[in-house]
Amino acid sequence: MARLGLAVGLISLLFLIIYGILSGFHALTVRLSSTPDGRADKVAAEAAPELLFSKKDVRAWLTDEAIFNLEKKAFQQQVAEHTYRVDTSLDLPLQTLMLDKIRSSKSRYIGFIALDPATGKILSLAGVNKKDLGQNPCLDNSLPAASIFKIVTAAAAIEHCGFKPTSKLTFNGNKYTLYKSQLKDRKTRYTNTITFQDSFAQSVNPIFGKLGANHLGRQPLEAYGEAFGFNQPIEFETYLPPSELIVSEKPYHWAEIASGFNRTTTLSPLHGALIAAAVLNKGRLPEPTIIESITDESGNSVYQGQSGTIHQAMTARSSEILHQMMQRTIKSGTCRKAFRGSRKDRILSRLKIGGKTGSIDNRNHDARIDWFVGFAEDKKGKEKIVVAAVVAHEKYIRTRASEYAKYAFIKYFNNYFTENRDKNDHVKKQTG
After folding, report:
1. What are the pLDDT digits (tens) for 247-276?
2. What b/e readout covers 397-412, taking b as 16+ CB neighbours within 10 angstroms?
3. Euclidean distance between the first and final Cα of the chain, in Å?
């Protein structure tokens, strides 16, 4: 009898354990489901802790098509048997303008991104690929980075080699070629002397080639590339393939990498915007987000977008130097024509603007890839925005990437200044 009682006791205990496990699992399952009338099971909800989607969870079901060329700030997303409301961080007036500008273009493809550098929140994501209408060029990691990589090289030269904006450098030959003979440190009566900051602003390939081949080499180029997010997964709410950087053992290849004179280093526009953000963000590469929140059928929040940092790409001091050098690109470098007349413009004259351009033929040599990454910030306030634009020109050069950036800066800050003026007027009326 004693053995029978012990057996009954063990069976009862086992039953209670199994029941407890199944009850807990049921509570969690019911919390994520809904009753026919749309109300969650209150008992199950109270029994189970609150569960939120992680960014990884969202990435499992949110496609890049879902966030591409949105015309509203929010949209509905079906996941299994549930319908969720997805609220984005888009600045709708800016998004609408960029959609209009891009859709009217005759270029092969265009990708445009604008975001808040401090939080990584995306304010505009728009583009077109006329050869593949369903493809989102904003997240395309196959685009040659061209001279945008000079931002990475400049940071490495500042920190690893001790270069200053006023450091004097020399080169021979054309600014925009890169022959092996141009990597030699030889001086003739035809040798050109230029400062480091002007070589950056004017995107002088031989200077940056010499930095790569003669001063940096493979390991620093790889290390700084990875610090800026190349070959690294970037957490986002939809899949973002990493930009690629491959550095060989050959010194001439180091020159090609450092100057951006190659088609193997690739970059997505979203990643380009993050690189520009690091310049304004004391060297920190922000983690991008486009979703403010996700709510279920009952209005419960299941996901909240959060700010984060991917890497400390460079020191705060280096970011300050690059901030100055990128402004020089606008004032006297490769962007001076695009931003000509800014001092007299009622919006642009109130901004600090910086940028970096890049230009290179694609692999098939049937399109010219044209880049701009940069920033604009209120001279008297704290408001800032960074953008990245890429355009593939075909037979004719259409609207350049820097011009799309200019459109965005004017639109965004016109709205910002108008809203602030209206707020100040309201305060004056209230206190008057």
Report:
1. 999 999 999 999 999 999 999 999 999 999
2. ebbbbbbbbbbbbbbb
3. 93
